[in-house]
Structure formats: structure tokens, C-alpha cells
Amino acid sequence: MLRTFSARGWARAKGPDARPGNLAIGVALGSGYQNWFAALSPSARQSEIASMRAAGISWVRMDAEWWTVEPSQGVFDWSNPDVTADAMLAGGMNLVVLLNESPVWARRAAGTAPLNSPWPTPDPQLYAEYCGQAAAHYAAKGVHVFELWNEPNLDTGANTAAGWGYQSPWGFADLAVAAYPAIKAADPKALVLGGTLATATEFGTAGTARTASWAAVPAGAVSATVSCPTATAADAYGILTGTADGWPVGTVITSAAAGLGYTVVPPAWLGAFPAVPAATGHTVRTGNVQYPPDVFLTQAYARAAGRPMWDALAIHPYTQPLLPAAQAAVWGGWATVPALRQIMKDNGEGAKPMWITEVGAPTGAATVSWPAAAATAGTLAVSGPSAAAADLGYQLAAPGLPAGSYVGAVSPGSGWTVLPPVGTLAAGLAKGTPATSLQLAATSTALTIPAGTVLTVQAVPAPLTVTTSAAVTTATAAATTVPVTGFTPAHSYAAGSVVQGPAGQLWGSAVAAATGRSATLTPPGVATAYGQVDEPTQAAIISQVFRSITVGVPAGSGSLGSDPWPFVGPVFLFCWSDAGGTAGPFGLVRQDGTPKAALAALTALARTGGV
């Protein structure tokens, strides 16, 4: 059984949703869902909430994005997140408010001490001011649970709202140390969640394998040179890892010369390299800037030096496409929990609980086949027994199909008619910014788009439909400007969003036949392709997670049960915007209203308290 956790600011689920076994079920909405939800009529919002409550869901984790609520310093506008917050509170839901995504004005200049990052990172004092304002605003509504940032151990890159720089354990600790007292001062009842650690593989187990050589590096060196004939410029600011080659965990590539190699520096917490022996022809790996949860947590605690950062550690122990019981420890998800728990104890925080604020799996996996198609063909008949009416307009991604191929028609239970896209956006469209044209990326074949053609930019939360105002021929080697009727999008559309339309587009190159190929169906513009599973597997993952927690017998190795389960309160399923459903209802109901298998399993668990 779960131990009951009593602390100011945390309460068990309200009314009939408080079940035996101390199981409380939540959903983590995400900004995509919130945009979808905000566009509903008031009655439709209440219907959505009623569906959640019928499934035993009584908690909601929602975003109050910093860049949205404080577009300029000191000017706060809570109207965007409050559409969701007010409706959910009126519907009887408990809320956790996620505080993340920095505005441009709040980011420090690149290279600012002490992080010395090549990328701007959020200023801790400015973040603390925003968090204090958020705590005061939502405490007045009866909300007292706040979460600091989202998955900071995954660095999303330069100049993005969630971006960090390659020393993110230190950067996040600075934010948390500043924000924690600011929230407590604004709301003494507040319960602060932090860490919010994403699943990430251990160093040396992911990334692109490359062959490299280097001279001996003396102890105390602050940089080193690595030769690598397959290096690319895109490797810069990634992590260099290898197998027993002497490089310390977290070594960073600060510059990369294509075909030549790298300059590397030690992780910030070391300051200098240990002695690294020379090597010739060693296999190393280069990958995105991400830190395994255990490494990240260890270094964040060290940076905080005993100063409080949170009241409970939040984690996201994803395992898809595997069941929790089958996940290898190096994958950093469910199997990392014992290590994280031990790190908390080692830092004097063994009495603090852990919250699971995201878990689950997106659906959309499919097995497909298709015949060969000529370069001059404009359609492709793809067979697959999982085809459903809700798939219309979705991208179908499979080896051998051009990126952006999408579903133009569906034969439920049989297959899809798949079309090549008109193109993809070369530049994004910002919410609320008037525009009179689309910028299409280079296409595989030139395409003439007549004036008056209706085009759809297909992305969640809602498609954007525009009409061309003049004829244009796309370019095959450069972006093309397509004049359209003036429009002001209600949502943002990222570069890479698929542009669809009946413009007679062709494949441009021959498509080879395929049989029994793995594929994924994904709403265009939504990055949920990783780890997509079929619906029965989604149900099994969710059931195994909840049963493991509520009965105290973990999935997989018995070693995970050596310590009493430190989880409390709600466990949040992420609202996947996936095939067979829209951004809502909360990713577990199909567009036609039919519950997915996972929802049925979840409802059964809620009825019994998970026991």
C-alpha cells in the first residue's frame, strides 16, 4: 500500500474519487491539450471533465507557461492558463501548476558565469519572481501544488523557451534554489515539486557511433582535441561518450569541424580533466545534450549544497515501447527509481516523497504493406488492419515513405490512401502574428499550385486552412513563398508542419513495395513518434505502473521493492495526442468517443483503488 503523505498543500482526491489503496489518478495535459481544451465551448469543456471524472481521474497537471503569462517583464496576463484552470476547478479537479518555458527577455546572455553555457539560460531571480507571482495567483483560487520546470535533464537546444545549455544540472539547481523560497513566501501552504526528471539513457548507451583518436590528455587540462574523420558540424554541444576510454561522464563537445574532429571540455562539476590515455580508432558516441536522471540529480544536489529545492521529487519513468517489467536499467526510466531514491537518502531527503507527474505511452504503431508506386503517382494504397476513420489527415511514417506522407482517405479495418504532402513549412507561424504567405521547404519535385487552392497546415491543436491568392511553382532546391489570403493564426505552427491540399502533388521518386513494415501514425506537428505502441500495450503499461505502486510490489526485478514505495497522491498519465484520438479527450478516448483499452483498465483500477 502507499503510505499516506501529510503536508501542507497536498490533499487526497476529492469526494467519490478518493479510493481505497490511496490511489489518485491524474492527467498531465500539456500545452497542446490546453490549446485544444480552450477552443471548446464551455459545455464541451464540462463534458470533457465529466469524462475524466467517470474514469476516476481527479487531478490535473497543467501548464502556466512563463513566456505566455509574462510576455514582458513585470506585466502578467494569466488569461491563457486560467481558461483551463477555472474550468477544471469548477469541475471539481485538483490542480498541479507547472512553471516553465522562459520568455526571451528572461534569458541570460550566452557565456554568463557561472554556467559558461554557449546558449542563453533562464535567469534564476527572474524565474523566482514569476514563480512567486504564480503561487500568489493560484493560491487565491485554492491551488497549492506547483512544479518547477519540466524535464530539465533533456536539453532542447539554443534559444528555445525550454532550452538550457550543456551544464543543466547546475542551471536547474540555481533555478530551484531561487524559486522554492519565493513560492513559499507567496503561499505558505504550497507544496513544491521539483526535479521533474525525464527518462534518459545512461551515458555511452545512445547517440551516433563514431571512430575517433586522441593524444594523451594530462590531468588538469581544461580542454582536449579529438580526431574524428566522420565528425559533423551538428555534433557541436553534444555529449561525447565511449566505453572505458577515460573520458569523464558528461564530457562536452564545444566545437566540431566536419571531417576533422572536436574540441572537448570536462563537465562543469569537474572543472578539469583527469588523465585520459591516448587512443587510436576507439568507438565513441555523440548525442543530444541529455543527462541520465541519476547523474542529473546527483549534480543538482551538489550544486544546491543543502539549500532546499523541493518538497517532493517529480519523475517521469517512461518505458515505452516496453513494459515496465522489461525495461533495462541503462534506459533510465522505471528501472532508475531505486537509484534516484538512494540519491535522495544520501542527500538527507529520504523522508521526502516522489511524485510521478508523467507516465504512459502514445499509441499509433501499425504494421503496413503497400505495392510499388511510380514517381509520377500521386497516391499509394497502404493496407493495415488497424486503420480507423480517425486517422484522416495524420502522417503515416514508415521506412520507404517520404517524410510528411499523410492519410487522404481511410477504409476502416483495411487500410489508407496515402498522399505525398504539398510540402512542409520552412519557417513557423507564430500565434497572433498576421501573415500573407507560407514558406514551403524545398520539395522533391516541382509542383504548380493554382490560385484559389485550399491548403491545410496540419498540426495539433487545430489545422489551419488558407487559400492561395496567386499561382506559384515550388522550388526543388530552395524554399518557396506561397501567397495566401491574409490570416492570423490562433495557434503556433512549427517549421516542419505538413502542408496538405488537393494540388495534384506527386511522389517525385519511385516508392518500392513493402510488406509487413512497422509504421507510426502521428498528428502532423506533434512529436510523439518515439515509443509509439498499439492500444493493448498502452493498456498493459498503464496497468502495470498503477498496480506496482498501489500494491507495493514493483514490476520487474524484486530489487525495486527493497525500499517501501515512496510515491504518494496522484500518478499522472500524459495526454498523448496520438492516432485514434485528438489532443483530447485526454489521449485515451478515440475521436468517435470509444474508450481505448487503457482507459477501461484505468477505470477498473480507480474503482478498486488499484488493489
Explain how this protein is built.
This protein is an alpha/beta fold and 611 residues long. Helix content is 20%, strand content 24%. The chain has helices at 30-38, 42-54, 66-69, 79-90, 124-139, 168-186, 293-304, 337-346, 535-551, 597-608; strands at 24-28, 57-63, 94-99, 145-148, 191-198, 208-214, 224-227, 239-242, 252-257, 261-265, 279-287, 312-316, 354-359, 365-370, 380-383, 395-397, 406-411, 415-419, 423-424, 435-440, 448-449, 454-458, 464-467, 472-473, 480-487, 498-500, 514-522, 567-574. Strands 1-2-3-4-5-12-13-28 form an eight-stranded parallel beta barrel, surrounded by seven helices. Strands 19-26-22-23 form a four-stranded antiparallel beta sheet, with no helix packed on it. The longest helix has 19 residues, at 168-186. The chain is globular.
Task: Summarize this structure as a short list of keywords or feature phrases.
single chain, 611 residues, alpha/beta, TIM Barrel, 4 domains, 8-stranded parallel beta barrel, 4-stranded antiparallel sheet, 20% helix, 24% strand, globular, Glycosyl_Hydrolase_39, hydrolase
Q: DSSP strand (E) fraction? A: 15-25%
Number of strands: 28
The level of helicity is 10-25%
SS summary, helix count: 10
Which spans have pLDDT < 50 for at least 5 consecutive residues? 1-21, 557-562, 579-583
Secondary structural class: alpha/beta
Which CATH architecture of the largest domain is right?
Alpha-Beta Barrel
Organism: Kitasatospora kazusensis
Family: Belongs to the glycosyl hydrolase 5 (cellulase A) family.
InterPro entries: GH, Glyco_hydro_5, Glycosyl_Hydrolase_39
Pfam family, one: Cellulase
